[in-house]
């Protein structure tokens, strides 16, 4: 990603709506593709039913990634524990490894040093995977948006399916968000990516400019890097 | 590593005695609101600090503040004493604007290591003889020093995702017999309590070298506060430093500092409400520490973790009634609190009393399942040993210091709020191990309950027409130019201090946070080197860090 082409931040809500609607109309978008679906690919009749069944299953038993970042993770813990008990909704099994999880709740502020690591964790999750952004920080950077080191929202790094606003959102709000996500999954919907995410790329592939030249001594061309542009993000 | 031991001295030093002691090292005097300030040359830091530590009893380097002025850089060493918190002195070390170099204090106080790395990272002062002057909070490829004056926030940055290397690999080339393994713990790992990264080198199952790598949650809290006005805008941020429900304790740190800075009185009634709220917060924070500790030690997600969350929910309900929020209270205002106790008051008192009445049974349950649990005992007794002199050198405070037998609590030693008038004790344990730190927290919950109970009694009988929750505070607060102050309170994790320098506007010129977790976490290598990996994890759990406060 380069700094000079403006990021296509879609402010026109009708456009977002259209893309979502399209995804809905065409039934499946490719984030739902699975090996099983390929195997059953020859028979269209079973395929539709099977997909429906699989989506229902997916929505009804979600493995969450045990992933804490900041203040919101405290409320997330409360959501898993007594009183709120997210397990009642078939979504209360926190997994410590991203390789066993289908849903990642991002509970907190993402800063430049953590962004590449979060991307890594997300990449390690098997498809299909879903993302819940919890709290204002994952929407826009929240109270810390002005900070020199803060990534302005999780969508700068990975696509987000559901945003739960609040600072922090109450556990009830998070449960509502999870329930909404389950509903969408069961219907085979997922959200389009509205912001071009920061990419992890090899240092050698970055467009050459002043900062890249400055760092040429310190970073190998093969090192994975993420460009961070405080001013350019929406 | 060995720690230099301070010599025993008698306390109470007047500024003149200190001046005599420092002698010709002093090149100027300053007056900070909390302490006398002595200006010294950048190459005499070690000498001055050692004299103060050995001959005047200033054995606690509470904080190092760095800042940049128009014409110079400055590092301020805030010293105080574990025996007498009211003894304070600031050592001001100016450094050249063009070439800011200053001597490192690491030789005298271990804790200076990280503080100076932070100063280098954010402000750009270089420290001579520092063992390892690297960036600490920002990625190592960061360009510029963001709290310096010439920093351009709009410039792009490149952040690498590096494989971390085994730092001992080089040494082993000569000797092929021993082999060590390098292990990354975190930044995404359930046992690190957030986004902490620990670089660990193992020999078999033993830790040979361990280094916490922080900065994954560096949210520019200091910059945020510097860009906000004293009166209203800063107060929401402290809630987010130590976010384990310790909000009111943090707010108090800011309130105390700013009230002293702007000379604001707080009505007695408001002080009692503050004290009660703060202690409720402390209980909630300690409950979570207990629950996650059990989770770390023997994976107890089903019983103890849930119990602790249950008790936290109760406290949070009370706090929600009081403040209107579950976690980010924003309840304190300069000069008092934002509103009175909720009506009907009887219901609120009853609810709180109910909680306090149930507490002994709950705590007994914890003791049955935790402290008398053999697995836990085997894992925690005599592991993660932190001798008191090491703890002091690292500036450890709070339950970590008290678990090492250091009788130090800002609530009692430098009283504020209503603590002085209440009957409670400072809890210490001298096992110095993980178990002691756990015990200290559990006993502190009882002490907090005592305090809350007394506060409630007082509040209940308070005459209706004297319920003054806020004093008169001007709409905009503009302290005089160049007033400096450093004040601390006892947060859930230890001494939470704030340094403010005013610049004549309604926003602080420099706002520096002294986080207890930052200093406490620094002791982790001392406790873990030579121990087994699971013990290192137990030690980390017993430190009860919260990354929002470590990284700020
Ligand atoms: S949204 Fe608020 S509560 Fe959540 S992580 Fe951000 S600052 Fe903390």
Automatic annotation (TrEMBL), chain A:
Keywords: 4Fe-4S, Electron transport, Iron, Iron-sulfur, Metal-binding, NAD, Oxidoreductase, Transport. Coiled coil: none annotated. GO terms for cellular component: respiratory chain complex I. Gene3D superfamilies: 3.40.50.12280. Residues 71-181 form the NADH:ubiquinone oxidoreductase-like 20kDa subunit domain. It holds the Pfam family Oxidored_q6. GO terms for molecular function: 4 iron, 4 sulfur cluster binding; metal ion binding; NADH dehydrogenase (ubiquinone) activity; oxidoreductase activity; quinone binding. The keyword Metal-binding applies. Its cofactor is [4Fe-4S] cluster. Residues 1-17 have a biased composition (Polar residues). The keyword DNA repair does not apply. Residues 1-28 are annotated as: Disordered. One of its GO terms (biological process) is electron transport coupled proton transport. Belongs to the complex I 20 kDa subunit family. This is NADH-quinone oxidoreductase subunit B. It comes from Halonotius aquaticus.
TrEMBL record, chain B:
It is a peripheral membrane protein. It catalyses: a quinone + NADH + 5 H(+)(in) = a quinol + NAD(+) + 4 H(+)(out). GO terms for molecular function: NAD binding; NADH dehydrogenase (ubiquinone) activity; oxidoreductase activity, acting on NAD(P)H; quinone binding. Pfam families: Complex1_30kDa, Complex1_49kDa. Its main location: membrane. Gene3D superfamilies: Cytochrome-c3 Hydrogenase, chain B, NADH:ubiquinone oxidoreductase, 30kDa subunit. This is NADH-quinone oxidoreductase subunit D. Residues 302-552 form the NADH-quinone oxidoreductase subunit D domain. GO terms for cellular component: plasma membrane. Keywords: Cell membrane, Membrane, Multifunctional enzyme, NAD, Transport. HAMAP family: NDH1_NuoD. The lineage of its organism: Archaea, Methanobacteriati, Methanobacteriota, Stenosarchaea group, Halobacteria. In the C-terminal section; belongs to the complex I 49 kDa subunit family. PANTHER family: NADH DEHYDROGENASE [UBIQUINONE] IRON-SULFUR PROTEIN 2, MITOCHONDRIAL, NADH-UBIQUINONE OXIDOREDUCTASE 49 KDA SUBUNIT. Signal peptide: none annotated. InterPro entries: NADH_Q_OxRdtase_suD (IPR001135), NADH_quin_OxRdtase_su_C/D-like (IPR037232), NADH_UbQ_OxRdtase_30kDa_su (IPR001268), NADH_UbQ_OxRdtase_CS (IPR020396), NDH1_su_D/H (IPR022885), NiFe-Hase_large (IPR029014). NDH-1 is composed of 13 different subunits. Subunits NuoB, CD, E, F, and G constitute the peripheral sector of the complex. It is found in: Cell membrane. Residues 39-155 form the NADH:ubiquinone oxidoreductase 30kDa subunit domain.
